[in-house]
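Weekly modeling sync, notes
Attendees: S.R. (lead), two postdocs, one rotation student

Agenda item 3: backlog of single-chain predictions. S.R. asked that every request posted to the team notebook include the full sequence so nobody has to chase files. The rotation student volunteered to paste the first one in as an example of the format we agreed on. Action items at the bottom.

Example entry:
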Amino acid sequence: MQQQASAHQRSAELQRRSLSQRSCFLGVETWAELVWERWDLGGEFTKTLYLKNVHSKLQKLRFKPPVTKFFTTLFPQVITLSPGTSFSMPVTFRPLERCEHQDTIEFQSKEGTFQVSLRATIPRHTLELPESVQLPPCAAHHSTQTTFTLRNASKLRTCFRWEVGDPFQLSPESGVLGPSEEAQIVVLFSPLEARVYQLEASCAFGDQGENSCTLLLQGLSKYPYLDIRAPGEEQGCKLLEFGTVAFGSCLEKHFEISNPSPVTSSFSLSRLRRPALLESVFEYSLREGLVAPESSVQVPVCFSPVEVDCHSVEYLCVSAPGALSKKLIKLTGSCCGPLVSLSVSVLDFGCVAEGEQTMRVMQLSNPSTVVAQYQFDAGTDGHSVFSVEPPSGTLPPNSTLTLRLHFCPRHPIPHHRRLACLVMHREPLFLDVIGTCHSEQLKPAVLRARHLSTYLRHLGRGLTFYPPDILSAMLAHNKLELDRHGALKIPEDLTQEVVPPDPPTAKTPMEEYFLSEMAIARHPPGAPHPICHVSVDPPELLFYEPPNSQSRSLTLTNHTKGKLCLLWTSSPDCPFSVAPATCELGPLKTTDFRVTYSPRQANTVHSAQLECFAIYKVLRDHCLSEEVTLCPPWCVTVRVSGHSFQPGREHFNPCCSLTRPRVVFPALPEVSYRTVLLRNTGDLPLLFRLGLEECPAVSVLPPSGLVMPGSHQVLCFRSTPSEEHTDTLAIPLQLNASPKHTQELTVISVAEKPRVCVEGDGCVFFKPTAVGCVSERAVRVRNMSRIPLHYQWRMRASDANLLSVEPSTGILQPNESTVQHWHFAPREEMTYNMRPSLLLWPTQSQSPTNKKSCLFLKAVGVASKGSIEAGRAMTDLGEVLVGGCKSFEVPVVNNSSCPVSFSITVQQSIMDPSLKEEDCDDSLVLELETQRGCVPARSRLLLRCSVKPPRRALYCWSLKYHTLNASGSEQGCAQPLCQVRGQGVFPTLEVTDARGSGAADGLSKLQLWGLFSLEPLNTCLRRDPSPLELTYRVPTRHSLRRCPSVFTSSILDFNFGAAPLGSEPSCVLLVFENTGSIPVEWCFLLPEDQQIELEYWAESGDFTPTELQHMRVQDNRLFSISPSSGSLPPGQQRAVQFTYRHEFAGTDRLPVLLKLSYGREILLNFVGVTVERDQRYIYFNCSKHTFTPVVIGGFEPPKQVYELYNGGALPLRYHVDTEPLEQLTADNFGHPVLQCLTPYGEVQPGQTARTEWIFSPLEAKTYSVDIPIHVLEGDSALIRFEGSGFDSNALGMSAPFRMDPCRVPCTQRVPLPGQIVFLSQERVCLGDVPVCSRSTRLIFLSNVSHTERVLFSWNLTDKDRQVVEIHPEQGSLAADESDLCILTFHTSGSPCFYQLDLMCEVVSEEALLQHEAAVRQWEQEKERQATEFTLTEKELSSTSPSHRTHTQTLPPIRIISSSVCAGGQHEPRPCRAERRAQREASQVWRRPAPPRPALLHLGLTARSHSLLEYQTIFPTLFHTHHIHVVRLEQPKTPPSGSSESRPPSVNLPLLRQGAEREILTHTLTSIIRGLLDDPQFPVSILNDRDEPVPYFTQLRPPPPSRAPPSSTSQPSSARYGSPDTGVRDGESGVTGVPPLSPPPRPLLPPPQQPGSPRRVATEQVGEAAEASQNALREERERKSEETIRRLPEFGDLVEDVLMNTLKNLMTEAFLGELVLTARPRIIALPPVTQPSSNRKGSVSSRKMSRYPSLPDTAKDPLSGPKTNRGPDMPPAASPSNTAPRQ
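Predicted structure, as returned to the notebook:
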């Protein structure tokens, strides 16, 4: 059945696998492959391939059968599958070779093809197992395990065998798996170290282990860590206190063993080694166990004390395998016993007649919480005169028991007996009972309690051994006297004659009990006893042997000096009797008595105390005694016991129990006592006897006796422990007088010497200590004896000041340890060897002569001098926020061998020369977390400090230290530690960029910089805040008004300019950068952000006009800031967008407070103007304009510019009223101090017009004039123009000739939203340049978009084109492409200030194409509407209804005026006609508007100076500029007659700017570059020099005669000036006279004709003439080259070549293809051979060195070959043309 179940399970699993392997291909569900596993050669094995159409339409499949011959299937056909139908295709496999076979069946459909794999496999051994096994985390020296499944995936029987190394083990290590059988493999992980384990286990499997696989075993091991949780804690261990526990009870408490580690840990709990004979009173059942991670285990501990008034200490150790440390817990507890007391100590029965009986009552109290067992040591058999009821019992806690005492006298004498009440675990209590019996014949004196006190005094003085008559005689003869208590005493004068016996020493109750009971009997007979008056021997009689009637003798001895009467008390019912019953005994005499045991009943036991009262004979008659000499009688007792069991009779079986069968005496060599309780738990009497003969060192009272059923007997043990008793003693306890019923009491009476264990084997080593300091060392001392010890440390006199210990004295309980703290305070640098001693003595010792034990220790300490130093001599805190706090750490390093205690002092100095002396007296701003501390040896301590600077200044703090001695006082002088510097700073913020968008996109960066007062803003942000500005250090709502109070004097304007109503908002993007080194928090606060929110009833309804305006602006959000607050780390920047919405016409103002936390407050007045759309409006930023100062006495004052911005929606014309200028001219003697060169002009909407002005002061003063500027159909404005003149001679070098540096940033810091094209430089500041100069800059346009192509075009005005050229002016940029634009700036011939704003329009090509498509569609529709007409005849519609066409035309195309389409949303509601016009306008299809281009502003600023002025002011920069002749202007005439002229070139035609010059320049540049790159070109030039002169050179006209040198040099000097000036003054056209120039000559000198007379003469003259001709020819060549180089055209050509070269280099560098900062490569060239006289040799040498040895003709391509040189050319240009240009 099990096999069938397993087979069914396997088939179900295979079916699940087959279903899971089915796939869907193109809507056909089938198997992805067919696999044949079990096959044999020569057989046929067929499987069926099922095809199911899961698609919703009909499927037609074609298939290709398998290619190989091993697989066959149906003949190819079309398989038609309807939706949901299936098709079965049999596939047959016929194997002919024993190997693996693979093939495919390909199916084709309209949607595509798919394949089904056919595969036949050979059975192989295969095991399936996981790649890796992760074991649970395990503690070191522990083990964990897990399991994984090993499955035989083959059809073969497979053997396996594992091989793995430590700490992993696999079980089973080997085995056999049947086909598809599984086995669970157990992995055991037993690490020994804490680390990560990764090990591969190798498994060999197969028939012979020929195959193998691996398994990665991973395990993590950690060290175990266990902790103890207990209520208390001591140094070094936990503490579990049980407190005081009653004897006989058990208290249970528990502590926890916690495991905070992430691994399970085992633990074992054991006791520390304790003294050998010390009993364990703490019990715990949990010895070992496991603690799970992050959990704990409770360990219960029971405390069962066995000794009263004993303090028990024990230590438990918790250890874990592999743990690095062990944990200790201290168990402490003490035992308390009962506290029993009698209500009276003396009980007086008074006088009783003979034969009568009396009773007294007393109380026995137990106020403790412990049960008390008591027993009165008195007979209960009737022999005793005094009896107690009950004689024994148990007294519950906090209870009182009433006792009844009976007095039944039998003889007429005074009676006295000292009854002992034995209490378990306590000293016995004594009760003195007295009573007097009178008969008719004898009436002795009545005994009272006072007589007992007198007796005790007499006993102490040794007078009780004398009879009363002798004492009376001695008193009569004055040998005795009475003291103040009425007792007798020996007079002082007779003290020397009469030597009284030694008074008895103070005894404990237990000692008194033993001495009174048994010590007397042990005294040698006949020897005088110091305190005993009557003794008996033996004190115990045992009748344990047959026959039934037995008798024993006993002896009584009189130790007094008087005659005694001995009277035995007897009971008629008692089987014990004494004969004789009475007798008299002389002084110091002995007599014998006979005790007879006559039991009246057989087989029983008996026990009794026989009493004998001994009294002086004289006291029997009261007449013979006196009150003062009255002495109470002495009671002598004898313990008797016996039994009446017949021989062979079985004695009673005892049923009893002992509270402790083990009696342990203290380990002191002194008399000690212990109590044991014998309880009769049976219902028969129990007779007991202790065999003390075998243990003479121990005494027991009572040694024998009878215990009634249910009662108990308190046994008192006495012993003197000795060191000789090394073993335990056994005392037999015989019960019921039968040897069969004998038990043993174990007694331990071993004395021990005090023994302690000191940590470190008696040696205490101190770490090196600094002189004057104290080092501490903890030493543990443990009491290894059973004696509680007092200890005390003593030091030698020489070590007393160096060494101390705390505590110096104390008590050590047995097995207890304590921690002693030693202190070493050296006085000088040396090594100290000290010998402290430890005195020990027992705490329980009562002997005054007990010697103290002494233990010597060795203490070694090394003293040295220590010092500290800082890790860094100088700590620079950098910049610290004023008012803030900065914490830092100063590492204090101690390189000495001893710890150093120190104290730090700080001195502060302010290193700022700008501060006054009184300001430098600030309080100390550097705070130390601790000014005192200690640095361990060879370590460092981090001294935490904080700085709170109150002002902006440079602080310097000097830290010094003192070393501290043991008392904490400073010693020595202060030593420098380190210095700390810090700069108190305020948070800084700076605007680094400004961008405009929306309605402000037409404003340049320079205009935004002025409108928003960014330069003053940056200046204010750099200043320190005033104390008022720091009233609120952080943004706070503090005002109750809508216009908050202003605490700052810095007020600036943020002017958004002007824009038409309803236009896009004016958006200005400002980039704020934190230029400091501390973070800055900034916030823009609107008035409503500073106002405290009040309740509605608290607000008043009266508002000022200003408040109403502010409320309107804030409610409509006309001004917005995003983000309005933020925080900037040092060096970071953030873009803030300021927006002004043009929704209401007029001027809007709003005060906004810029607040820097802990910094400045600046009030920004936001100002924005909104203009009606039909209003012509010029926006004036302010009503005052100041010109740049101009020097007086100058001939050519510079032109200056004043800008007019059109803030409206309509173009306007302006007119500058010049009447005030004419008046100013008249006031200055007709001198035009201020001229307006462009008083009229037109400004387009959103554009800026630049008006030119000339300010020419006469005096060094300030001129001012108010000039009206009128706007046609608009408002006029009155602007005040001011200008200052200065005297250059008076100011000297400080004269403002130089142009102020431009502080507007030149690069864009942050992009605008949607911006994809950027300029590499947004501002070009050329500075000061001379007139008629040309400067060139390279500007890159970059398209950062990855997908979009853009078109750009520079929008230059006519005035801009006069001075600026940009090439190319337009073009396109592909995605991620950059283009280089060359900016060329030409200065005019007169000085001027240039302030240009060049705009580049950027349009997306895709948007432009969409616009063109929309325009074409609009034009087509327009053409259609122009040619389309509608027929309205009714006849046509009625006659031909079938040809009716339903069409819908588009709205008509009309041109709508701007007044209709520009209406704003806040205009008044239009009338009905206007609304109808608007509806018609909304239905008109307007012409598509072109896409709005993005504007890029390129600012250009420069100032041109006259040549003389520039050469004077900038002499070192003059040679860096190239002066163009064409730029020199004619003398100044009225503006209408001014013109410019340029003299023609000497030999070349004039090349104007334009396409012709560009084509020629490009052509020549390409030709020259190609010639220079051709290596054959220099060689051909050199070879042409050797060729003969061609014939056709003779056909040219003869050269003109050479002009004399004076005629050529003089005009050159007159026309072009000296070479130093570099200016062609002769051809400047200043005088208007045409320049005198020589006739034109060809550019290149013509060659000499071969047949000329000069050549024939030269051949005849000889070598001398040839040499002279060569020299003349070289001179002509040099002059011709110099003439060509001075030509302007040649300079322009060279400049173009250099410009193109630089353009290529910069483009490559910009694109990253060239690294300009890379290290240049050094190419070693062959040495240059010096040219020889042979031409061929020179040519070959030049070929070897291509460029260094090229002739001048090769270096200058325009100079031509030397063989074709003509005559000398006249100079045509001044040497100034050779200067480099920009």
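Discussion: group reviewed the output briefly. The mean pLDDT is 80.
Action items: rotation student to repeat for the remaining queue; S.R. to check formatting next week.
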